[in-house]
Design brief:
The structure is a single chain. Helices cover 78% and strands 0% of the residues. The protein is an all-alpha fold. The radius of gyration is 20 Å and the shape is globular.
């Protein structure tokens, strides 16, 4: 029962944040119905960036969220900021998400590894390849030890790491890793498969 209550609280926190602080504000009707006075100023021409900024600010103000809900919301917003090209804000949100996931689930949990990989990707997109590599190396290593070297998540992490080695100019490390990922992927999917 205690776990059920915790899960219900988690789900309600996510739904309420999305309803009142993000998705409900994508229409003028939603802004009128759900929003506080500062959101009503968004208007019908609000951009995704406007909505993300408001949601991120609201998230910073919230003190009632369970750590798991906050971690997940920060991850969602951080990834969306990366897609909007705001890498600095993405990194700030993802750094906090990673801290929360580590404290909740531990360093080897999938949620933590996903958050760390997302943070690494934001640094990579921002041209901070060395920082991205520092974050990616332990993710790739942990996934290989937990899942095996031919698991899709391991291969994805290794492929991302190889791409960062290449972007940083470290071809001696990039090429063997890329060849290994290519071999494993082709072996699993079959030579000639479009995804290999």
């Amino acid at each position: 029962r205690e776990e059920e209550a915790r899960q219900r609280t988690y789900a309600e926190s996510i739904v309420n944040f999305l309803k009142y602080d993000l998705l409900g504000l994508t229409t003028v009707e939603g802004q009128t119905r759900f929003a506080d006075s500062d959101a009503r100023d968004l208007g019908r021409n609000a951009t995704l960036t406007d909505l993300l900024e408001r949601a991120a600010n609201k998230l910073d103000e919230r003190t009632d969220l369970a750590p798991a809900a906050e971690a997940q919301l920060r991850w969602m917003l951080g990834v969306n900021y990366r897609y909007q090209g705001d890498y600095e804000r993405s990194c700030r949100l993802l750094e906090r998400s990673l801290e929360l996931f580590k404290s909740i689930d531990g360093s080897g949990a999938n949620s933590t590894l996903d958050a760390q990989q997302s943070l690494a990707m934001s640094h990579a997109y921002n041209g901070e390849h060395r920082k991205a590599i520092e974050l990616m190396e332990p993710v790739a290593s942990m996934r290989r030890s937990l899942l095996g070297s031919n698991h899709p998540d391991s291969l994805s992490s290794l492929g991302n790491l190889a791409a960062e080695y290449r972007a940083a100019g470290d071809l001696d490390r990039a090429m063997p890793l890329l060849q290994s990922v290519d071999y494993e992927t082709s072996h699993q999917l079959g030579v000639g498969n479009a995804d290999s």
